Target: Apoptosis-inducing factor 3
Amino acid sequence: FLFVSAVEVKIEVVIPEKERSKEEMSPNGKASPLIYKVNGTARHYHLEEHPIASNPYHNPKDVVEASVCHVKDLENGQMREVDLGCGKALLIKESGEFHAVGHKCPHYGAPLVKGVLSKGRVRCPWHGACFNISTGDIEDFPGLDSLPRFQVKIEKEKVYIRASKQALQTQRRTKMMAKCISLSNYNLSSTNVLIIGAGAAGLVCAETLRQEGFSDRIVMCTMDRHLPYDRPKLSKSMDSHPEQIALRPKEFFRTYDIEVLTEMHVAAVDIKNKTAVFKDGFKMEYNKLLIATGNTPKALSCKGKEVENVFNIRTPEDANRVVKLATSKNVVIVGASFLGMEVAAYLAERAHSVSLVELEEVPFKKFFGERVGRAVMKMFESNRVKFYMQTEVSELREQEGKLKEVVLKSGKVLRADVCVVGVGAVPATGFLKQSGINIDSKGFIVVNKMMQTNIPGVFAAGDAVTFPLALRNNKKVNVPHWQMAHMHGRIAALNMLAHGMEISTVPYLWTAMFGKSIRYAGHGEGFDDVVIQGDLDELKFVAFYTKSDEVVAVASMNYDPIVSKVAEVLSAGRTIRKRDVE
Model:
Protein backbone atom coordinates (compact mmCIF):
# COMPACT_ATOMS: atom_id res chain seq x y z
CA PHE A 1 0.00 0.00 0.00
CA LEU A 2 0.93 3.65 -0.17
CA PHE A 3 0.83 5.16 3.29
CA VAL A 4 -1.40 8.03 4.24
CA SER A 5 0.05 11.49 4.46
CA ALA A 6 -2.15 14.40 5.43
CA VAL A 7 -5.10 14.42 3.05
CA GLU A 8 -4.15 13.51 -0.51
CA VAL A 9 -3.99 9.72 -0.22
CA LYS A 10 -4.60 6.59 -2.17
CA ILE A 11 -4.46 3.22 -0.49
CA GLU A 12 -4.28 0.40 -2.98
CA VAL A 13 -5.08 -2.98 -1.54
CA VAL A 14 -4.65 -5.82 -3.99
CA ILE A 15 -6.73 -8.91 -3.54
CA PRO A 16 -5.25 -11.85 -5.43
CA GLU A 17 -7.98 -13.97 -6.93
CA LYS A 18 -7.45 -16.87 -4.55
CA GLU A 19 -7.64 -14.48 -1.60
CA ARG A 20 -11.24 -13.70 -2.44
CA SER A 21 -14.16 -15.51 -0.92
CA LYS A 22 -14.21 -19.30 -1.05
CA GLU A 23 -17.44 -19.21 -3.04
CA GLU A 24 -15.41 -17.84 -5.97
CA MET A 25 -13.01 -20.78 -6.03
CA SER A 26 -13.41 -23.09 -8.96
CA PRO A 27 -14.05 -26.61 -7.64
CA ASN A 28 -10.56 -27.84 -8.51
CA GLY A 29 -8.81 -24.72 -7.26
CA LYS A 30 -7.61 -23.78 -10.77
CA ALA A 31 -8.17 -20.10 -10.03
CA SER A 32 -4.99 -19.93 -7.98
CA PRO A 33 -2.42 -17.46 -9.28
CA LEU A 34 0.23 -19.05 -7.06
CA ILE A 35 2.30 -22.13 -7.72
CA TYR A 36 3.95 -23.83 -4.77
CA LYS A 37 7.24 -25.69 -4.87
CA VAL A 38 8.95 -27.75 -2.25
CA ASN A 39 12.47 -26.56 -1.69
CA GLY A 40 14.10 -30.00 -1.48
CA THR A 41 13.93 -30.58 2.26
CA ALA A 42 10.97 -31.83 4.21
CA ARG A 43 10.68 -28.55 6.04
CA HIS A 44 11.27 -25.44 4.01
CA TYR A 45 8.73 -24.26 1.47
CA HIS A 46 8.57 -21.21 -0.70
CA LEU A 47 5.87 -19.60 -2.78
CA GLU A 48 6.98 -19.16 -6.36
CA GLU A 49 7.16 -15.48 -7.31
CA HIS A 50 4.12 -14.43 -9.27
CA PRO A 51 3.50 -10.92 -10.59
CA ILE A 52 0.35 -9.47 -9.07
CA ALA A 53 -2.14 -8.33 -11.67
CA SER A 54 -2.30 -4.57 -11.96
CA ASN A 55 -6.08 -4.70 -11.71
CA PRO A 56 -7.11 -6.91 -8.80
CA TYR A 57 -10.74 -6.99 -9.96
CA HIS A 58 -10.88 -9.09 -13.09
CA ASN A 59 -14.48 -8.36 -13.88
CA PRO A 60 -15.26 -4.62 -13.96
CA LYS A 61 -18.98 -5.43 -13.56
CA ASP A 62 -18.14 -6.99 -10.20
CA VAL A 63 -16.68 -3.73 -8.88
CA VAL A 64 -18.42 -0.93 -7.03
CA GLU A 65 -16.87 2.34 -5.94
CA ALA A 66 -18.60 4.76 -3.59
CA SER A 67 -17.87 7.89 -1.61
CA VAL A 68 -18.60 6.94 2.00
CA CYS A 69 -17.69 9.97 4.12
CA HIS A 70 -15.60 13.12 4.51
CA VAL A 71 -12.03 12.60 5.84
CA LYS A 72 -12.90 14.56 8.98
CA ASP A 73 -15.95 12.39 9.78
CA LEU A 74 -13.77 9.79 11.49
CA GLU A 75 -11.37 10.41 14.38
CA ASN A 76 -8.37 8.15 14.95
CA GLY A 77 -9.47 4.95 16.67
CA GLN A 78 -13.00 5.12 15.24
CA MET A 79 -14.89 2.59 13.13
CA ARG A 80 -17.96 3.09 11.00
CA GLU A 81 -20.18 0.71 9.05
CA VAL A 82 -20.64 2.20 5.57
CA ASP A 83 -23.03 1.23 2.79
CA LEU A 84 -21.73 0.89 -0.76
CA GLY A 85 -25.18 0.27 -2.25
CA CYS A 86 -24.79 -3.47 -2.81
CA GLY A 87 -23.29 -4.30 0.55
CA LYS A 88 -21.55 -2.84 3.58
CA ALA A 89 -17.95 -2.42 4.65
CA LEU A 90 -16.24 -1.51 7.90
CA LEU A 91 -14.27 1.73 7.57
CA ILE A 92 -11.56 2.20 10.19
CA LYS A 93 -9.25 5.11 10.95
CA GLU A 94 -6.14 4.37 12.97
CA SER A 95 -2.91 6.42 13.24
CA GLY A 96 -4.14 8.75 10.50
CA GLU A 97 -4.68 5.89 8.04
CA PHE A 98 -7.96 4.62 6.62
CA HIS A 99 -8.67 0.89 6.17
CA ALA A 100 -11.73 -0.92 4.85
CA VAL A 101 -12.60 -4.57 5.50
CA GLY A 102 -15.69 -6.78 5.74
CA HIS A 103 -18.14 -5.58 8.41
CA LYS A 104 -19.33 -8.99 9.68
CA CYS A 105 -17.35 -11.54 11.63
CA PRO A 106 -17.12 -14.63 9.37
CA HIS A 107 -17.69 -16.90 12.41
CA TYR A 108 -21.36 -16.17 13.24
CA GLY A 109 -21.92 -12.79 11.55
CA ALA A 110 -21.42 -10.38 14.50
CA PRO A 111 -21.29 -6.67 13.57
CA LEU A 112 -17.61 -5.78 13.96
CA VAL A 113 -18.41 -2.07 14.34
CA LYS A 114 -19.56 -3.02 17.86
CA GLY A 115 -16.25 -4.78 18.53
CA VAL A 116 -12.96 -3.47 19.92
CA LEU A 117 -10.30 -1.70 17.85
CA SER A 118 -6.79 -1.89 19.24
CA LYS A 119 -3.31 -1.64 17.72
CA GLY A 120 -4.08 -2.62 14.15
CA ARG A 121 -6.73 -5.21 14.78
CA VAL A 122 -10.45 -5.45 15.45
CA ARG A 123 -11.86 -8.00 17.91
CA CYS A 124 -15.35 -9.47 17.50
CA PRO A 125 -17.78 -8.43 20.28
CA TRP A 126 -19.43 -11.87 20.48
CA HIS A 127 -16.78 -14.58 20.53
CA GLY A 128 -13.46 -12.75 20.45
CA ALA A 129 -12.09 -13.52 16.96
CA CYS A 130 -9.46 -10.93 15.87
CA PHE A 131 -8.72 -9.55 12.41
CA ASN A 132 -5.82 -7.47 11.11
CA ILE A 133 -7.27 -4.18 9.80
CA SER A 134 -4.60 -3.79 7.06
CA THR A 135 -4.92 -7.28 5.57
CA GLY A 136 -8.23 -8.62 6.94
CA ASP A 137 -6.36 -11.74 8.08
CA ILE A 138 -7.72 -13.68 11.06
CA GLU A 139 -5.27 -13.48 14.00
CA ASP A 140 -7.28 -15.07 16.80
CA PHE A 141 -10.23 -17.41 16.71
CA PRO A 142 -12.96 -18.89 16.55
CA GLY A 143 -13.80 -19.20 12.85
CA LEU A 144 -11.70 -20.18 9.85
CA ASP A 145 -12.04 -17.37 7.34
CA SER A 146 -10.52 -13.91 7.14
CA LEU A 147 -12.23 -10.65 6.19
CA PRO A 148 -12.19 -9.32 2.64
CA ARG A 149 -10.24 -6.04 2.43
CA PHE A 150 -11.15 -3.19 0.14
CA GLN A 151 -9.31 -0.35 -1.59
CA VAL A 152 -9.56 3.05 0.05
CA LYS A 153 -8.71 6.27 -1.75
CA ILE A 154 -9.08 9.88 -0.76
CA GLU A 155 -9.88 12.59 -3.28
CA LYS A 156 -10.83 16.19 -2.45
CA GLU A 157 -11.14 15.25 1.24
CA LYS A 158 -13.69 12.53 0.48
CA VAL A 159 -13.12 8.88 1.35
CA TYR A 160 -13.91 6.37 -1.40
CA ILE A 161 -14.07 2.59 -1.09
CA ARG A 162 -13.65 0.35 -4.12
CA ALA A 163 -14.79 -3.22 -3.60
CA SER A 164 -15.80 -6.42 -5.31
CA LYS A 165 -19.58 -6.95 -5.08
CA GLN A 166 -18.96 -10.66 -4.50
CA ALA A 167 -16.76 -9.93 -1.46
CA LEU A 168 -19.29 -7.39 -0.12
CA GLN A 169 -21.98 -10.02 -0.29
CA THR A 170 -20.07 -12.99 1.14
CA GLN A 171 -18.21 -10.94 3.82
CA ARG A 172 -15.52 -13.62 4.10
CA ARG A 173 -12.26 -14.62 2.47
CA THR A 174 -10.43 -17.91 2.57
CA LYS A 175 -6.68 -17.41 2.77
CA MET A 176 -4.50 -18.57 -0.11
CA MET A 177 -3.51 -22.21 0.22
CA ALA A 178 -1.07 -24.58 -1.40
CA LYS A 179 -2.07 -27.91 -2.88
CA CYS A 180 -0.35 -31.25 -2.70
CA ILE A 181 2.13 -31.48 -5.57
CA SER A 182 1.96 -35.17 -6.45
CA LEU A 183 -0.65 -37.19 -4.62
CA SER A 184 -0.44 -39.97 -7.19
CA ASN A 185 3.16 -40.79 -6.21
CA TYR A 186 2.30 -41.56 -2.60
CA ASN A 187 2.49 -44.83 -0.82
CA LEU A 188 -0.97 -45.17 0.76
CA SER A 189 0.44 -46.17 4.12
CA SER A 190 2.72 -43.18 4.64
CA THR A 191 2.11 -39.46 4.99
CA ASN A 192 4.21 -36.41 5.77
CA VAL A 193 1.74 -35.04 8.34
CA LEU A 194 -0.74 -37.23 10.22
CA ILE A 195 -3.42 -35.53 12.30
CA ILE A 196 -5.35 -37.71 14.74
CA GLY A 197 -8.69 -36.00 15.43
CA ALA A 198 -10.81 -33.82 13.14
CA GLY A 199 -12.08 -31.11 15.47
CA ALA A 200 -11.10 -27.43 15.37
CA ALA A 201 -7.44 -28.08 16.31
CA GLY A 202 -6.92 -30.72 13.61
CA LEU A 203 -8.63 -28.72 10.87
CA VAL A 204 -6.87 -25.44 11.66
CA CYS A 205 -3.53 -27.28 11.71
CA ALA A 206 -4.18 -28.71 8.23
CA GLU A 207 -5.38 -25.38 6.83
CA THR A 208 -2.45 -23.46 8.34
CA LEU A 209 0.06 -25.87 6.78
CA ARG A 210 -1.51 -25.29 3.37
CA GLN A 211 -1.69 -21.50 3.93
CA GLU A 212 2.04 -21.53 4.70
CA GLY A 213 2.81 -23.23 1.40
CA PHE A 214 3.24 -26.80 2.66
CA SER A 215 2.65 -29.00 -0.38
CA ASP A 216 3.24 -32.51 0.90
CA ARG A 217 0.67 -35.08 1.99
CA ILE A 218 -1.67 -34.31 4.93
CA VAL A 219 -3.95 -37.02 6.36
CA MET A 220 -6.52 -36.39 9.11
CA CYS A 221 -8.24 -39.33 10.75
CA THR A 222 -11.29 -39.29 12.99
CA MET A 223 -13.53 -41.78 14.77
CA ASP A 224 -16.46 -39.61 13.69
CA ARG A 225 -18.39 -40.45 10.54
CA HIS A 226 -18.48 -36.80 9.48
CA LEU A 227 -16.04 -34.25 8.15
CA PRO A 228 -15.10 -31.59 10.76
CA TYR A 229 -18.17 -29.80 12.16
CA ASP A 230 -19.09 -27.00 14.57
CA ARG A 231 -19.21 -29.03 17.78
CA PRO A 232 -20.48 -26.23 20.10
CA LYS A 233 -23.73 -26.30 18.12
CA LEU A 234 -24.50 -29.86 19.28
CA SER A 235 -25.80 -28.53 22.59
CA LYS A 236 -26.79 -25.02 21.45
CA SER A 237 -28.91 -25.90 18.41
CA MET A 238 -29.53 -29.59 18.80
CA ASP A 239 -31.58 -30.27 15.69
CA SER A 240 -28.77 -29.15 13.33
CA HIS A 241 -27.92 -31.71 10.66
CA PRO A 242 -24.26 -32.58 9.98
CA GLU A 243 -24.18 -30.76 6.62
CA GLN A 244 -25.63 -27.58 8.23
CA ILE A 245 -22.82 -27.43 10.78
CA ALA A 246 -19.93 -28.64 8.59
CA LEU A 247 -16.94 -26.31 9.02
CA ARG A 248 -15.92 -26.79 5.39
CA PRO A 249 -17.76 -28.38 2.44
CA LYS A 250 -16.52 -31.67 0.97
CA GLU A 251 -15.11 -29.86 -2.09
CA PHE A 252 -12.79 -27.82 0.13
CA PHE A 253 -10.91 -30.91 1.29
CA ARG A 254 -10.63 -32.11 -2.30
CA THR A 255 -9.44 -28.73 -3.58
CA TYR A 256 -6.64 -28.43 -1.03
CA ASP A 257 -5.75 -32.13 -0.86
CA ILE A 258 -6.51 -32.57 2.82
CA GLU A 259 -7.39 -36.24 3.13
CA VAL A 260 -9.88 -37.15 5.85
CA LEU A 261 -10.27 -40.78 6.95
CA THR A 262 -13.58 -41.09 8.81
CA GLU A 263 -14.56 -43.84 11.28
CA MET A 264 -10.91 -44.67 11.84
CA HIS A 265 -9.79 -45.50 15.36
CA VAL A 266 -6.09 -45.18 16.27
CA ALA A 267 -5.22 -47.90 18.78
CA ALA A 268 -1.55 -47.07 19.39
CA VAL A 269 1.33 -44.84 18.32
CA ASP A 270 4.78 -46.35 17.81
CA ILE A 271 7.09 -43.36 18.17
CA LYS A 272 10.28 -45.32 17.43
CA ASN A 273 9.03 -46.30 13.97
CA LYS A 274 6.91 -43.12 13.55
CA THR A 275 3.80 -45.19 12.90
CA ALA A 276 0.15 -44.99 13.94
CA VAL A 277 -1.54 -48.36 14.37
CA PHE A 278 -5.28 -48.45 13.73
CA LYS A 279 -7.80 -50.70 15.46
CA ASP A 280 -8.38 -52.68 12.25
CA GLY A 281 -4.62 -53.39 11.95
CA PHE A 282 -3.91 -50.76 9.27
CA LYS A 283 -0.63 -48.89 9.87
CA MET A 284 0.39 -45.46 8.69
CA GLU A 285 3.87 -43.95 8.84
CA TYR A 286 4.26 -40.22 9.44
CA ASN A 287 6.99 -37.61 9.49
CA LYS A 288 5.14 -35.16 11.78
CA LEU A 289 2.23 -36.09 14.04
CA LEU A 290 -0.50 -33.96 15.66
CA ILE A 291 -2.62 -35.59 18.37
CA ALA A 292 -5.89 -33.69 18.73
CA THR A 293 -8.27 -36.37 19.99
CA GLY A 294 -10.25 -34.16 22.39
CA ASN A 295 -12.03 -35.79 25.27
CA THR A 296 -14.47 -38.58 26.04
CA PRO A 297 -17.61 -37.84 28.06
CA LYS A 298 -17.86 -39.58 31.44
CA ALA A 299 -20.69 -42.09 31.76
CA LEU A 300 -22.85 -42.67 34.83
CA SER A 301 -21.68 -45.50 37.05
CA CYS A 302 -25.04 -46.16 38.75
CA LYS A 303 -27.33 -49.17 38.55
CA GLY A 304 -29.20 -49.40 35.21
CA LYS A 305 -26.74 -47.26 33.29
CA GLU A 306 -27.12 -49.47 30.19
CA VAL A 307 -30.86 -48.85 29.67
CA GLU A 308 -32.00 -47.35 26.37
CA ASN A 309 -32.48 -43.58 25.82
CA VAL A 310 -29.60 -42.46 28.04
CA PHE A 311 -27.23 -40.22 26.06
CA ASN A 312 -23.87 -38.51 26.13
CA ILE A 313 -24.05 -35.90 23.38
CA ARG A 314 -21.09 -36.69 21.21
CA THR A 315 -22.35 -36.51 17.61
CA PRO A 316 -25.04 -34.71 15.57
CA GLU A 317 -26.99 -38.00 15.54
CA ASP A 318 -27.03 -38.06 19.38
CA ALA A 319 -28.29 -34.47 19.53
CA ASN A 320 -30.96 -35.04 16.85
CA ARG A 321 -32.16 -38.23 18.53
CA VAL A 322 -32.48 -36.53 21.94
CA VAL A 323 -34.61 -33.72 20.45
CA LYS A 324 -36.88 -36.28 18.79
CA LEU A 325 -37.30 -38.39 21.93
CA ALA A 326 -37.67 -35.37 24.24
CA THR A 327 -40.41 -33.56 22.34
CA SER A 328 -43.48 -33.42 24.64
CA LYS A 329 -41.82 -35.95 26.96
CA ASN A 330 -40.01 -35.92 30.35
CA VAL A 331 -36.30 -35.19 30.26
CA VAL A 332 -33.75 -35.59 33.04
CA ILE A 333 -30.33 -33.98 32.63
CA VAL A 334 -27.54 -35.11 34.92
CA GLY A 335 -24.87 -32.45 35.51
CA ALA A 336 -25.19 -28.66 35.42
CA SER A 337 -22.14 -28.41 33.14
CA PHE A 338 -22.06 -26.13 30.07
CA LEU A 339 -23.38 -29.03 28.02
CA GLY A 340 -26.05 -29.97 30.59
CA MET A 341 -27.30 -26.39 30.97
CA GLU A 342 -27.34 -25.67 27.22
CA VAL A 343 -29.27 -28.88 26.54
CA ALA A 344 -31.74 -28.01 29.34
CA ALA A 345 -32.28 -24.55 27.83
CA TYR A 346 -32.75 -25.95 24.32
CA LEU A 347 -35.26 -28.60 25.42
CA ALA A 348 -37.20 -26.43 27.91
CA GLU A 349 -39.77 -25.26 25.36
CA ARG A 350 -39.94 -28.56 23.50
CA ALA A 351 -40.20 -31.13 26.29
CA HIS A 352 -43.10 -31.71 28.67
CA SER A 353 -40.71 -31.36 31.62
CA VAL A 354 -36.99 -30.77 32.13
CA SER A 355 -35.31 -31.73 35.43
CA LEU A 356 -31.66 -31.06 36.16
CA VAL A 357 -29.69 -33.05 38.76
CA GLU A 358 -26.42 -31.63 40.13
CA LEU A 359 -24.03 -32.35 43.01
CA GLU A 360 -23.16 -28.69 43.69
CA GLU A 361 -25.65 -26.30 45.30
CA VAL A 362 -25.52 -23.81 42.38
CA PRO A 363 -24.83 -24.34 38.66
CA PHE A 364 -21.47 -23.04 37.37
CA LYS A 365 -20.33 -22.24 40.92
CA LYS A 366 -16.69 -23.19 40.32
CA PHE A 367 -16.58 -21.37 37.01
CA PHE A 368 -18.73 -18.24 37.35
CA GLY A 369 -19.01 -18.04 41.14
CA GLU A 370 -22.07 -18.39 43.35
CA ARG A 371 -23.82 -15.09 42.60
CA VAL A 372 -23.69 -15.40 38.80
CA GLY A 373 -24.62 -19.10 39.17
CA ARG A 374 -27.74 -18.18 41.18
CA ALA A 375 -28.81 -15.54 38.65
CA VAL A 376 -28.51 -18.10 35.84
CA MET A 377 -30.41 -20.68 37.92
CA LYS A 378 -33.25 -18.18 38.44
CA MET A 379 -33.47 -17.59 34.67
CA PHE A 380 -33.77 -21.36 34.13
CA GLU A 381 -36.42 -21.75 36.82
CA SER A 382 -38.50 -19.00 35.22
CA ASN A 383 -38.31 -21.09 32.02
CA ARG A 384 -39.78 -24.19 33.73
CA VAL A 385 -36.53 -26.07 34.39
CA LYS A 386 -36.66 -27.85 37.77
CA PHE A 387 -33.40 -28.26 39.72
CA TYR A 388 -32.50 -31.10 42.10
CA MET A 389 -29.27 -29.87 43.67
CA GLN A 390 -26.72 -31.46 46.02
CA THR A 391 -27.76 -34.96 45.03
CA GLU A 392 -26.87 -37.54 42.40
CA VAL A 393 -28.44 -40.43 40.51
CA SER A 394 -28.56 -43.77 42.32
CA GLU A 395 -30.51 -45.79 39.73
CA LEU A 396 -31.98 -45.65 36.23
CA ARG A 397 -35.16 -47.75 36.01
CA GLU A 398 -36.53 -49.21 32.81
CA GLN A 399 -39.73 -50.54 31.39
CA GLU A 400 -39.34 -52.93 28.44
CA GLY A 401 -35.64 -51.97 28.17
CA LYS A 402 -36.37 -48.24 27.85
CA LEU A 403 -35.77 -45.58 30.49
CA LYS A 404 -38.81 -44.92 32.72
CA GLU A 405 -37.54 -43.32 35.94
CA VAL A 406 -34.46 -41.72 37.43
CA VAL A 407 -33.98 -42.41 41.15
CA LEU A 408 -31.95 -39.88 43.14
CA LYS A 409 -29.84 -40.53 46.25
CA SER A 410 -32.19 -38.18 48.10
CA GLY A 411 -34.93 -40.78 47.49
CA LYS A 412 -36.79 -38.64 44.94
CA VAL A 413 -38.04 -40.51 41.86
CA LEU A 414 -38.25 -38.53 38.58
CA ARG A 415 -40.28 -39.60 35.56
CA ALA A 416 -37.95 -39.77 32.57
CA ASP A 417 -38.34 -40.77 28.92
CA VAL A 418 -34.86 -39.57 28.02
CA CYS A 419 -31.76 -38.79 30.06
CA VAL A 420 -28.78 -36.66 28.97
CA VAL A 421 -25.54 -37.07 30.90
CA GLY A 422 -23.22 -34.04 31.19
CA VAL A 423 -20.97 -34.87 34.13
CA GLY A 424 -17.67 -33.89 32.59
CA ALA A 425 -15.15 -35.59 30.37
CA VAL A 426 -11.73 -37.22 30.40
CA PRO A 427 -8.97 -36.73 27.79
CA ALA A 428 -9.14 -39.30 24.98
CA THR A 429 -5.52 -40.38 25.40
CA GLY A 430 -5.77 -43.99 26.61
CA PHE A 431 -4.22 -45.24 23.35
CA LEU A 432 -0.98 -43.36 24.20
CA LYS A 433 -0.33 -45.11 27.55
CA GLN A 434 2.62 -47.20 26.33
CA SER A 435 3.82 -44.72 23.70
CA GLY A 436 6.50 -42.81 25.64
CA ILE A 437 4.63 -39.54 25.04
CA ASN A 438 4.50 -37.59 28.31
CA ILE A 439 1.01 -37.74 29.89
CA ASP A 440 0.13 -36.31 33.31
CA SER A 441 -1.72 -38.05 36.15
CA LYS A 442 -5.12 -36.92 34.80
CA GLY A 443 -4.41 -38.25 31.30
CA PHE A 444 -3.60 -34.91 29.63
CA ILE A 445 -0.77 -34.72 27.09
CA VAL A 446 1.89 -32.30 28.32
CA VAL A 447 3.10 -29.79 25.71
CA ASN A 448 5.29 -26.69 25.69
CA LYS A 449 4.37 -23.24 24.30
CA MET A 450 5.02 -24.54 20.79
CA MET A 451 2.51 -27.40 21.28
CA GLN A 452 5.41 -29.89 21.16
CA THR A 453 5.34 -33.03 23.28
CA ASN A 454 8.50 -34.56 24.76
CA ILE A 455 8.95 -36.52 21.50
CA PRO A 456 10.51 -34.63 18.54
CA GLY A 457 8.06 -34.24 15.65
CA VAL A 458 5.05 -35.11 17.82
CA PHE A 459 2.68 -32.24 18.62
CA ALA A 460 -0.62 -32.18 20.54
CA ALA A 461 -3.49 -29.68 20.66
CA GLY A 462 -7.01 -29.02 21.91
CA ASP A 463 -8.99 -30.38 24.85
CA ALA A 464 -6.57 -33.26 25.52
CA VAL A 465 -3.53 -31.14 26.44
CA THR A 466 -2.09 -29.05 29.24
CA PHE A 467 0.06 -26.16 28.08
CA PRO A 468 1.78 -23.13 29.68
CA LEU A 469 -0.67 -20.20 29.80
CA ALA A 470 1.21 -16.90 29.39
CA LEU A 471 -1.66 -15.05 31.08
CA ARG A 472 -1.10 -16.98 34.35
CA ASN A 473 2.71 -16.91 34.48
CA ASN A 474 3.04 -19.99 32.28
CA LYS A 475 1.15 -22.21 34.68
CA LYS A 476 0.32 -25.54 32.98
CA VAL A 477 -3.42 -25.53 32.35
CA ASN A 478 -6.08 -27.39 30.40
CA VAL A 479 -8.43 -25.03 28.54
CA PRO A 480 -11.11 -27.12 26.78
CA HIS A 481 -12.58 -24.28 24.70
CA TRP A 482 -13.40 -24.04 21.01
CA GLN A 483 -11.34 -20.86 20.45
CA MET A 484 -8.28 -22.31 22.17
CA ALA A 485 -8.40 -25.50 20.09
CA HIS A 486 -8.23 -23.37 16.91
CA MET A 487 -5.19 -21.50 18.20
CA HIS A 488 -3.44 -24.70 19.33
CA GLY A 489 -3.86 -26.12 15.82
CA ARG A 490 -2.39 -23.01 14.25
CA ILE A 491 0.63 -22.88 16.59
CA ALA A 492 1.31 -26.62 16.09
CA ALA A 493 1.29 -26.20 12.28
CA LEU A 494 3.66 -23.20 12.37
CA ASN A 495 6.08 -25.16 14.54
CA MET A 496 5.91 -28.24 12.33
CA LEU A 497 7.35 -25.79 9.77
CA ALA A 498 9.99 -24.64 12.31
CA HIS A 499 8.63 -21.08 12.78
CA GLY A 500 9.45 -21.08 16.50
CA MET A 501 6.01 -19.62 17.33
CA GLU A 502 4.84 -19.60 20.97
CA ILE A 503 1.22 -19.49 22.11
CA SER A 504 0.13 -16.36 23.97
CA THR A 505 -3.62 -16.11 23.29
CA VAL A 506 -6.20 -15.17 25.94
CA PRO A 507 -8.83 -17.91 26.49
CA TYR A 508 -12.31 -16.84 25.30
CA LEU A 509 -15.56 -18.78 25.51
CA TRP A 510 -19.29 -18.31 25.41
CA THR A 511 -22.43 -20.15 26.38
CA ALA A 512 -25.92 -19.55 24.95
CA MET A 513 -29.17 -20.23 26.83
CA PHE A 514 -32.72 -18.93 26.19
CA GLY A 515 -31.46 -16.51 23.55
CA LYS A 516 -28.97 -14.96 25.97
CA SER A 517 -25.20 -15.35 25.97
CA ILE A 518 -22.61 -15.31 28.69
CA ARG A 519 -19.21 -14.34 27.32
CA TYR A 520 -16.02 -15.07 29.22
CA ALA A 521 -12.32 -14.29 28.78
CA GLY A 522 -9.24 -15.12 30.82
CA HIS A 523 -8.54 -18.04 33.14
CA GLY A 524 -10.35 -17.75 36.47
CA GLU A 525 -9.21 -20.99 38.09
CA GLY A 526 -8.62 -20.41 41.80
CA PHE A 527 -10.29 -16.94 41.88
CA ASP A 528 -10.85 -15.68 45.43
CA ASP A 529 -13.31 -12.83 44.81
CA VAL A 530 -15.82 -11.61 42.23
CA VAL A 531 -16.47 -7.91 41.59
CA ILE A 532 -19.88 -7.42 39.94
CA GLN A 533 -20.99 -4.30 38.09
CA GLY A 534 -24.51 -3.93 36.72
CA ASP A 535 -27.65 -5.83 37.70
CA LEU A 536 -27.68 -9.61 38.19
CA ASP A 537 -31.48 -9.74 38.51
CA GLU A 538 -31.87 -7.99 35.16
CA LEU A 539 -29.19 -10.29 33.67
CA LYS A 540 -27.24 -7.21 32.57
CA PHE A 541 -23.90 -7.42 34.32
CA VAL A 542 -20.15 -7.83 34.14
CA ALA A 543 -18.28 -9.99 36.67
CA PHE A 544 -14.53 -9.58 37.26
CA TYR A 545 -12.80 -12.62 38.77
CA THR A 546 -9.83 -11.68 40.94
CA LYS A 547 -6.99 -13.57 42.56
CA SER A 548 -5.34 -11.54 45.37
CA ASP A 549 -5.10 -8.12 43.69
CA GLU A 550 -5.31 -9.09 40.02
CA VAL A 551 -8.22 -9.57 37.57
CA VAL A 552 -7.70 -13.04 36.05
CA ALA A 553 -11.00 -13.39 34.13
CA VAL A 554 -14.20 -11.58 33.20
CA ALA A 555 -17.74 -12.71 32.34
CA SER A 556 -20.65 -10.65 31.07
CA MET A 557 -24.26 -10.82 29.96
CA ASN A 558 -25.89 -8.07 27.86
CA TYR A 559 -22.80 -5.92 28.35
CA ASP A 560 -20.92 -6.08 25.03
CA PRO A 561 -18.15 -5.49 24.15
CA ILE A 562 -16.68 -5.49 27.69
CA VAL A 563 -15.33 -9.05 27.53
CA SER A 564 -13.59 -8.38 24.20
CA LYS A 565 -12.17 -5.14 25.69
CA VAL A 566 -10.72 -6.99 28.67
CA ALA A 567 -9.38 -9.73 26.37
CA GLU A 568 -7.54 -7.06 24.34
CA VAL A 569 -6.03 -5.49 27.48
CA LEU A 570 -4.89 -8.89 28.79
CA SER A 571 -3.55 -9.95 25.40
CA ALA A 572 -1.40 -6.79 25.34
CA GLY A 573 0.25 -8.17 28.51
CA ARG A 574 -1.23 -5.48 30.76
CA THR A 575 -2.41 -6.24 34.30
CA ILE A 576 -5.85 -5.14 35.49
CA ARG A 577 -5.92 -4.52 39.24
CA LYS A 578 -8.89 -5.20 41.46
CA ARG A 579 -9.12 -1.51 42.41
CA ASP A 580 -9.47 -0.60 38.69
CA VAL A 581 -12.79 -2.46 38.48
CA GLU A 582 -14.24 -1.87 41.93
Notes: The first strand starts at residue 10 and ends at 11. The domain at 310-423 is CATH 3.50.50.60 (FAD/NAD(P)-binding domain). The chain has four domains: 60-170, 190-296+427-497, 310-423, 515-580. Residues 482-496 form the longest helix (15 residues).
